[in-house]
Amino acid sequence: MLLNSMNFIPVNVSTNSGLRSGEVPESFVYEGIEYIISEINDRWYQIDNKQGFPVSDYFKVVTSEQNIFMLKHEMAENKWLIAEYNL
Hints:
Layout: E1 9-10, E2 12-17, E3 23-30, E4 33-46, E5 56-63, E6 68-74, E7 79-84
Antiparallel strand pairs: 1-7, 2-3, 3-4, 4-5, 5-6, 6-7
């Protein structure tokens, strides 16, 4: 799935500063429901500030309900976004 084809929308995320640099998401509220993150399946970085793709951390997460979401943390604005991850 291409990231530019995903529809990211703003979301409130609770984080815990990880052992490595950067924040690690622990939970988020999406469509009025709080989801607890049980696993981070993947994590990667957008390090080049390209048009439409600001410097960001991406997290593919699994919730305690076994839902899969993509979280994006835009570093410069400290803004979190979410997209549902459908295979």
